[in-house]
Design goal:
mainly alpha, membrane, transmembrane helix, transmembrane
């Protein structure tokens, strides 16, 4: 590509943090307007089945995104800490965030907020010390 970067694995962290925010928004909408009573008509039954299928699909996507998050976070941490392009060395404590993310397979309701907050904090610190990404090179 011709551009020198420390690591592009932060893309996976950004995608999963954004997905986590959307997941909680979906959960709030589902709790507000989702099925709470038995269906009284065929149309209502179809709506309830589709909303439950969407919930199952989001749940499966959560597991895929968790795996992406753990791999992206670990690799980005590794490349940033071993790069000659920056003097910033992220603390090893940051590696606790992907370990917490692995608990998403057991207790997703507890782990997802920690993943969102931890990922956002890591990206903020990374941007502060490594530099802000140039979105012109990302988008085109």
């Amino acid at each position: 590509m011709g551009t020198t970067t420390v690591s592009r694995w932060w893309y996976g962290i950004v995608v999963t943090v954004c997905f986590g925010v959307l997941l909680y928004a979906f959960a709030m909408v589902f709790m507000t307007v989702g099925p709470s009573q038995p269906a009284r008509s065929d149309g209502e039954l179809v709506l309830k089945v589709l909303s439950l299928a969407a919930t199952a699909a989001v749940g499966m996507l959560l597991y895929v995104m968790t795996a992406l998050y753990v791999v992206s976070f670990g690799l980005d941490w590794w490349y940033v800490s071993t790069s000659d392009l920056t003097s910033y060395t992220p603390s090893r404590w940051y590696l606790g965030i992907p370990l917490v993310a692995l608990s998403n397979f057991v207790k997703p309701v507890v782990a997802t907020p920690l993943i969102i907050i931890g990922g956002a904090y890591y990206l903020r610190q990374r941007a502060r010390f490594v530099g802000r990404p140039k979105f012109s090179s990302v988008l085109g």
